[in-house]
Amino acid sequence: MMTLALVFDWSGTFLDEADAVLQTTSAILGRFGRAATDMHTFRDHFDVPLSVFSAI
């Protein structure tokens, strides 16, 4: 099964947006009953392209 996602990168670089992406990811996880994540764990799991963003 293929999961589709739409990803926005407003400034053209994910490095400057790391904190905002972390906060957004934690908010989404919370909506699904999952615990928020910290920057270290986020960096261990987040990767580009999004298809390799592993489950936290």
Question: Mind explaining what this structure looks like?
Answer:
- The protein has 56 residues and is mostly helical.
- It has a domain at 19-52.
- Helix content is 38%, strand content 0%.
- The chain has two helices and no strands.
Instruction: Figure out the total of helices.
Output: 2
Q: What is the approximate shape?
A: globular
Mean pLDDT: 77
User: Distance between termini?
Assistant: 20 Å
Order of helices and strands: HH
**How is the biggest beta sheet arranged?**
none
Helix percentage range: 25-40%
Strand content: under 5%
Number of strands: 0
Classification by helices and strands: mainly alpha
- Taking Cα atoms only, what radius of gyration do you get, to the nearest Å? 11 Å
- Low-confidence segments: none
Topology (SSEs and partners):
Elements: H1 18-31, H2 39-45
Give me some keywords for this one.
56 residues, mainly alpha, 2 helices, 38% helix
Q: How would you summarize what this structure contains?
A:
The chain is mostly helical and 56 residues long. It has a domain at 19-52.
